Amino acid sequence: MASRMRLEDRECPLSTTVQHVGEWWTLLILHDAFDGYTRFDQFQESLGISSSMLTVRLKTLVADGLLERRPYQTNPVRHEYVLTELGRSLRPVIVALAAWGNARLAPEERSMILVHRATGEEVEPVVIDAKTGDRLDDSDAYVFTAGPAAGDAMRARYLSTTTGP
Questions:
Q1: Residues 70, 96: one domain?
Q2: 0.90 exceeded by the pTM?
C-alpha cells in the first residue's frame, strides 16, 4: 500500500507556496499589511479575527519570514508587524487574486478596485512574461515542465509538456 504524500514532502513550488500563504487568514493579514496596517489591534479590528487565531497567524508569518515583529513602544512593550522584502514580494500575487475575483463581478458589484495612485485611474492587472511581455493568461502556449532540481516523479510528470501530449 502506497503511503500518502504530505504537502510538505512535495517538490512542487505550488505546494511550498500554499504552506506559507494558502490559509484564509494569512492572505487577509498580508492584504491589510499592504494597506499599511502594522499593529495587532488594527489587524484584529479590520478582520474581525479572534486574538488567539491572529496571534497564531502572525507568529507563523514571522517564522516564515514574511513579516518582521519589532517593538514600537517600551512601557509596556508593544510590537508591530512589518512586511519583509519576502513578504512584499507577494504583492503581485495578492493583486492577481483580487483581480481574478473582480473579473467575475459586474463593475458595480466590486467593493475594492486597484487604481494608479497618481491618476486614480482603475488598472487591470495581468501576469506577463518579463522577457517577451506576453500575457500568461489561460492560453495553452505556456506550460509547466520539470526544472533543474526536479526529481524522477516530477520529470516523469512533465516528460512531454514542451512538445505536447
A1: no
A2: no
pLDDT digits (tens, 9 = 90+) for 109-151: 999 999 999 999 999 898 888 998 988 887 788 888 888 888 8
- Domain of residue 141 covers 127-165
Q: Are residues 85 and 14 in the same domain?
A: yes
Same domain for 121 and 75? no
How many whole angstroms separate alpha carbon 9 and alpha carbon 130? 30
Do residues 127 and 55 touch, judged by C-beta distance below 8 A?
Answer: no
Give whole-number Cα distances, 158 to 8, 65, 148, in Å: 20, 31, 12
Strands (E), the chain: 67-74, 77-83
95 and 81 in a common domain:
no
Locate 19 and state its grid cell: 504552506
Count of domains in the chain?
Answer: 3
Q: Which of 8, 4, 15, 21 is nearest to 94 (CA)?
A: 21
